[in-house]
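Our consortium's second objective concerns turning raw sequence data into structural hypotheses that experimental partners can test. To show how far this objective has progressed, the report includes one record in full. It was chosen at random from the queue rather than selected for favorable results. The single chain below, 297 residues long, was entered without modification.
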Amino acid sequence: MDLEQQQLDLRYSRLRLRVPHRERRLVASMAEVGQLVPVVVVGSDTDPDCAVVIDGFKRVRALRVLRLDVVRALRLDLSELEALVLYSSLRATDGASALEQAWLLQEFQSRFQLSMQQLASQFEKSESWVSRRLALVRELSAGLQGEVRRGRITPHAATKYLVPMARAKSEDCERMARAIVEHGFDTRTVGVLYAGWRDGSAVTRDRLLEDPKLYLESRRALAEAGETLDPREGLLKDVEILGSVARRAIRRLREAGQLALIAPDVDTLLAGLVLATRRIEQLTDSIQALRAPEEAV
């Protein structure tokens, strides 16, 4: 069936990510060969003259860019909820991001009043999984999520790095998000910045967020300089790194405190610590032996 653009209700487009370069390719393809695949719609629960789009948002946007008013559509004889459940299960194999899953869960919860138990059943997941996904949208501001939807921040960077920042200090998270959008940082670079923020002092954090590009350049310069350190400078740097690694491990242990590490994990950690302790003791003894005899007494 053919529908006019004004008949389409795109309310669920906000549940999907936008990838600008893919949409540009789609526009170019449709300009050449037209719309080959119909969009999927269902009848509106509130307006009989409208059709709610369930799948095909990129195609609709591409047609609008091309100033084409007619949209080829496939109408399903399902309710909005049934159609969303169907297409969410199909997209599960298509690699929907954690944030997209969270947006859909939130929609089910707010629009269709589904309980945690019902959500878990629909997604064939545990209630704990549902709770963790919903926590993502509670931690990140609406503005930040909008940048993810528009493709300016990758969902992986948002979930892995910005969520823990938001939990610790929401203001710093917003500053980091603005920097990502302004400079177009990829996920790997965001990871480097997050590690610097996580392990840095209050002053370091503020400087990093004030000028992240300068921080990255300084870090790169230090790494290059480290390759040319003489043995004495290299030894001093290595000992400093040992302390930093220990502090980071303590912080990660605290963060993981609620995860109830299972026995095999504890045994592995203890075995690694025993070995690391022996090596540090060997290093300490070797350095201690370098002291003058009167200083060693």
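The partners drew two points from this record. The mean pLDDT is 85. Residues 261-297 form one domain. Both points have been shared with the crystallography group to help prioritize constructs.
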